[in-house]
Structure formats: C-alpha cells, structure tokens
User: Fold these one by one.
Assistant:
Number 1:
Amino acid sequence: MKKRIGWFIAGGLLIAALLAGVVSSFASSSPDGLDAAARKGCTFDADDNITGGTCMAQQEQDHQLKDSPLADYGIKGIDNEFLSTGLSGVLGVAVTFAIGGGVFWLVRRRGHHEEKTDSAAGSASA
Amino acid sequence: MNGVAMHIANGIVNAQVSAVFAAIAAAALAICVWRGRADLDDRLAPMAGLVAAFIFAVQMLNFQVLPGVSGHLLGGTLAVVLVGPWVGALCVSTVLIIQCLLFADGGLTALGLNITNMAVIGTAAGYLLVAGLLRILPKTPRGVAVTAFVASIVSVVVASQAFVLEYALGGTTQLSMTTIAGTMAGAHVLIGIGEGLIAGVTVATVARIRPDLVYALRRFRTARPVATKAAQTTVGAQA
C-alpha cells in the first residue's frame, strides 16, 4: 500500500505560495546574469534608456504581451508594490500547478499497464 | 522595469536563429512527452505539477551574486532529482511558457531559445551529472543534496553557454564572443552555486520526509540509469 500524496502536495504548494507571495518582495532587483551581460558595454539613464555604447540589449524589442494584466510580475491596477508582486506570484503558482498538473494528469499512464492510445499526448504539445 | 525580466528578450537573437531553436525546442518537448509518459503515473503527475509551481515561485527569488548582478534558479537539476529527466524538462518548459504568456517575461519570439537553454540543455546536463554522481554517492538525503548541488552548478553554466552559442549564430552586434562567454560563465558559476544550495536543501528535505517521492532515489539505483526499461526489470528481479 503506497503512502498518500495529498498532504505533501498541499504543503509544498503552501511553501511555494509563501515564497512567491511574500519572500519575492525581498528579492534582488538587480538585473540577472543574462540581463547584466546583455547590458554590458552600454550606458543607461535614470529611466533605463540606453544612452551610448555597444551591448546586446540594444537590439532588445518590447514583449508582444507587455500590456498583459500580469506583465512584469505585478497586477495591473494595484499600486502597492508588495501586494502587486505578491498576488501575481501566488496567482502564478496556482496557474502553474493547475496547468502543469492538469496536463501531466491528462497524459499520465493509467492503471497498471501502459495505455496504447496517443490521443492525450497531442494535447500536451499545444 | 528591466530588473524583473529574467529570460532572453525579443530581438537579442535574430528571427531566423530563433525559429530554428523554436523547432529544436518543439522536437525535444515532443520526445519528452513521449518518454515522460512512461514515468507519469497517478503519483508522479501531481508531484510534477508541484515541482513546476515550486520552480515558478523560486524563479521569482533573485539573489545578489555580484554588485549590480543577481541570479535566480533555473530548476532543471531540481526537477531531474524529483521527477526525472523527461518530466523534469516538461516542468521547466511549463514554467517558461506561463512566464512568457502571462507575465511577459522572456520574449515570445525567444521562447524556443529559452526552452532550449533552460528546459532542454540545462535539464539534460543536470541529468547526466545526477545519474553519474548517484553511482558513487550514497542514496541518502545528504547524498542527493551533494548531487543536486554539484549538478546544479554545471547545469546552469552549460545553459548559460547555450545562450552564447545562440548569440554567436544569431547575434546582431559586433561584440567579442569571448568576452560574452566569459561574462556569462563567471556570473553563472555564482548563480549555479546559489541554485545548488536551494536545490540541495529542497531535495534533502523531500528525501528526509518522503523518500518515496524522490525519483532519483527510486530510479537511479541501478548501474545503467539511462536504460529505463532494463533498470525496471533489474529492480523487479532483485525484489
């Protein structure tokens, strides 16, 4: 008889929600390793616009979905930065678990023998 | 605003090279779905959902590695240890797709590049290290923690150099590739150490409270971890 997994998943999700919802507000706001390398060689003004030099970030273009309500890990319309970042993080954890877990559940192998139909596998690549 | 962007943005690598890597990423993910299904049962499926959600959360936690430079976990090695290489790559991809589509992080055009680097190459490098190290290290919480620590560092540096390769192929400035490779490697060794500490603590905690949920402890015991089918029959024969 295998041990149950429900409480472990619930506990793990709670920790993830706390990390994304609370601890995330204390994260470093410096550019990450990739972004820092991309900016190396250019000078920037206070608004983060390139003022001179040569760097990878010069070719950077806007994100197609930059006006999405959750863009840049905040919730549009909430001015309190702590709330905005935290709520977007909790929402992200919930959505990732729902979509990831849902797709994995749909494509899983059922019962004790391997399922032969591949109908479910197609939906995962979408 | 630049501080919250974590992955390759649009325009850094040209459209043709981005398209080639989108095709590579799609093919790799198809293989992962095909191979991963053999691993995904009623217990691994919710566990994989949790791993994806956890990686999403920890990727928000940028830590300082140098003055003006931060880093965050990529998650490939952590996923390999907990849910195996195929499902692990799918977990990291899920996070990257959601970050791109919902949080506008990592360009839509660059999604194939980001998936190739972090979900495919990073996870593959982590897997090779984990499978190799667990042949010599003990299958204890401490053993998997050390494994995850070392494998994370290598995985993160390899993933960062995959970006350098893509930039060499499709970059649009005349910058020195050696300089970019050096800058990326230097920062990512430090990021890898940070990732290794997070991954090590996480897998050791799970291994201590629920060792039955750690894929690496169940599946990498045999001498030939790559041949899943053969490994299963060996385990069955021993039982």
Number 2:
Amino acid sequence: MNTISYAQAIREALFEEMRRDQRVFVLGEDVATFGGIFKVTKGLLEEFGSERVRDTPISENAIVGAAIGAALMGYRPVAEIMYMDFLNECGDQLVNHLPKLHFMTGGKLTASLTIRTQYSLGRNTGAQHSQFFPSLYMNVPGIMLATPSTPADAKGLLKTAIRGKNPVLFLECASLYASKDEIPSEEYLIPFGKADVKRQGSDATVVAVSRMVGEALAAADALETEGISIEVIDPRTLVPLDTDAIISSVKKTGRLITAEDGCRTCGVGAEIVARITERAMDYLEGVDRVACPDVPAPFSPPLQKAYMPGKTSIVESVKKML
Amino acid sequence: MLEEEVERLYKSGQIPGLAHPYIGQEAVAAGVCAALDKDDVIVSNHRGHGHSLAKGVPEQAILSELMGKDTGMCLGLGGSMHSTDLDCGVIFSTAIVGGGIPLSVGVALALHMDKKTRCVVCFFGDGASNTGAFHEGVNLAAVWRLPVVFVCENNQYAISVPVSKSTSARVAHRGQGYGIPSRLVDGMDVLDVYAAASEAVSRAKKGDGPTLLECETYRYRGHGMYDTGLDYRTQQEINQWMERDPIRTLEHELVKERLATVEEFEVIRSRARSRLQDAVKFAQERPYPSVDLLAKFVWA
C-alpha cells in the first residue's frame, strides 16, 4: 500500500492510462503548462507532449464537443471542466448530444470518453463556484456518474471510466484533493455500480455521497460513543446506482438517511429515497435527507458554515429518527 | 426528387414527426460532397437528407429511417434529423442548431492526430452562425489548425427570421475574425460550390487549417413540412430564386456546351425515379423496429 492524496491518485490514473493506451489524451482549460488549477494534471505535458495534453480556450461547449468528436473516431479523451458549475456552459454537448449518440444512431456511434470536473463547496467560492448537482444528470439516461470519496476510489474509478465504453461524468471534490489515504501498490480497477459499505451498523443506514462520506464516518464515530450504530454506504457511482446494496442495508436497519453536498429538492437523496420506498417500504421506519438548503451557496464563511451539511447534521438526523 | 417523395409520404402520414426539405439547396451538398474523397467525412444538421444522399447513402436507408422502419440507417431510432452511415462517411447529423460544429471540430482533431490526409465537412445554416457553438467551434478549429471545412448554407431564413434581422455581418466575413480563409459562394451554382470546396478541402488536407464557406442559397419550401413558407416571404421572392434553380441551370449549361444531351438527362431522371420508387416500396414494406430496441442502445 502507498499513502497518497486524492489529487495524486487521479494524476496516477491519468499517467497510467495514457501510458497504457495511445488513444487516451487530455484536454481542458489550463491543463497543460499550468497542470490544472488544482495541479491534478501536472507533469502530463512533460511526459506526453502537447498533442496529447491540450490547453483549450475558455469554451466549455467546444471542449466537450471536441472530446465527443474525437471519441466517435476512436480516441479516448479525458476532458477537464474546471468547475462543476461550468458544466452549464456545455449543456448542449453534455446533455443533448453525448448521452444520446449511441442510442439515436442505433448503436452505430459510441462515445467512450470521460469528463472530469470538481465541485468546490466549502472553499468560500460563492454561488457560482460551489454547486454540486449530480441529480441533474441522473435524469439524463446515457451518461455514467462517478463520485469518488477516497484516493483509492478516485484512482480505481477513473481508470475504469477511461477504459469503459460509455461516457462518464467524473465528479471530484476540491476539498478532498489534499486528503490522503492508502491505495494498493499494484494495478487495480474499481467497477461501476458497486457500492462500498464503509462501516457496518444496525440502527440506521446513511448513504453518503463524495465529501459527505467522511462526514458520515465521523458521525458514526460520534454516535457510537452514545451506543448508536449506523451503517455508512458510499455508492461511489450514482449512475449506475447500487440500489440493491442500499436495500439490503435498509432491510437490516429500518432507517434511511441520505447525505450530499447539493440542494435538497430533487437531489440525489430524493431519488434514493424514492427507489427504496418503491422496493422496501415495509421495512422503513424513518427517512431523512441531509443536504444543503434550497438556497444558492453563500460566500461569507459563517453563512457557508451554516449552509453546508456535515457530521453534525447527520448526527442530529439520526437522533431525531431514533 | 427524393425530397418531393418525402413530402408526399409525409402528407400521407407515412413519415411521422418532423422533416425539413432540402429542395433548392441541392447545389451545396452536391458541390461539396463531389470535392470529397470516399474516406472524408461529414457532420450534418436537421436539414440533412440532401447531405446523406450526396455522400452516397442509399435512398432505402434514408427513407426507411424517415419512416421509422427497422432498415433505417439508425434502425429507426433517429428519424429525419439524425443520419449516421459510417461506410459512407456520414458521422452524425444533429437536430440542435449549431450543435454539430463543436463535434465536427473533435472529428477533425481525431483526423489530425491520426496523421492521415482526411478532412471533415460540417454543414450548418445561417441560423447556426449566431450560436455560441459556432464561435467556440470555429475558434478552436482555427487555433488548432484542424482539417475541417465549415459550410454555412445561408438559405436566407432561420425558420421565419430573415438574415437581415438576425445576422450582423455576412457569415463569410466572420472568418476574418477567426483568422481563417473564408469565401462567399454562389450556392445556386454547383460549379462554384465545387471549386470553393475543392480549394478548402485541399487546404485542410495540407494541414493549413479550416476554411469557412458561406453558400448563398434558398429553400423553396417552408422550414419544415408543417410550414407553408409564405407567412414571412412572398411567392414572388420564391419564384425569383427558383428561376436560378441549380439543377435546371446545370442541365441547361451542359446541354449548351454540348457536354450532355436533353435525352441523357431524361435517362438519368428516369433511372433515379425508378430507384426511388423501389426504395419507397422497400421502406413501406419493412416492419417497424421491435420494442426490444427501446432500451438496447442506452449503454454501449
């Protein structure tokens, strides 16, 4: 095992996949000379050159369009969109084109590509640089969604995304970039659609996404001292979503709490709660969604603190339910 | 001829949904595609039947797709606005105005990285030249000097809004803003289109980057089948453009120059008509796709 950061893990995945497959190339704003604003792509230009590591203009729609066109011709592009908020700049290519190309051509076209982006909630970046809205894309069939919460998952999931046939939106979390953890030293892949039960428990199931996985584990530690046992599940990919793993857990605990860094209405939690209610309503004694309020992200630090969900909100949710 | 058949099938309820006739603009697709090699590719748009035909897609596959039948080029999952035939070099046609432009830049990027002398043509209308996708796509192709030819078919109207009310400058003049060669082309003259396209294709293949061609043309019919085309323009205006009909003009010139005879054109027309009738019959007789297809191609 090696101990590396979340950002290093992503960088290692890129290096390994670019060495393995000549068709893999990287494009995005400031990804080459500058190494990305979070330095995730640092060093790629030096090793792979400017044909395979491409700085782009600030043209998100063209970045994704260019990635799609190249993918249709057999390349395996990894496009970086600097902030998740900026995905709205490429909505046409991302929503109207990418997820539908395989379908509407009767399988003749395949767009095997990865779009990496990150959300920055918690870094006082204001309403236009903090958003996390994966459920928007869960509503669009044809694109997979990965939300790694650890360095090991980030590396294994990214390698799977790059090698896979389907388009993947790879959602990183900026406040996790510096977090360190152990990863296997030998090569490994992590399959999509397989949740990770991070902690076993019996009183409630917390399904946490991205940064909230760490918060849920911290909540579990705090609750344990009070004799309350919670199970923490990280779905790791939202599309495909490992519904079966959540159902098995809820059948055991009888209580479901979802935790995410996005807004509450129509968020990831809403979909998870709906699925579990459809298939396991008889087992449910309590349901809650821990999320941001339906308010744009504020800038001022005390307001941001009040806005963000975290360990405390999970602990309160569990206690209210028991 | 194909589009007249499409109109008939549409009006008799055999083609559902939307369909956008290409009648009047034939010289653009024919002139551009004649300048391409077989392994060159195109990205098309919602008014794309003419592009597919000019690139060699069989009428059977086009009509089957329009009718939603299982032998359509996209197995009936795409419809009139979505054409893909990789054997003929038709990569994709988009139903989002301007959406094909960034995508074609990616196709050009792949051709560039392949280090082969191939190019891609992206067809779009005057309306698309006012989208952000146009600006982003043309700029990126210019910065990276990619082998793409942007062919704007200026048919004078974006649905009902005339170019004079929607487009601040000639589309061809916009090329200068991106530092790429551009040219205004008579889109009713197939030879002018062919000459301009040949030059642009050769530039792309030499590695000298993109070209923007604005082909001035006219759609004789409405925007789509539901539109008479007479709410925002006069019959007189339509007649004036029809006097310059690209097919008739070419025939006339070739006969005048003694390069072909009227009889030869009759033979060509008769063959095309008969091939088309076979294609219609074929498409009519084919079944609709199985419902199993519904979820089959969401994931690769």
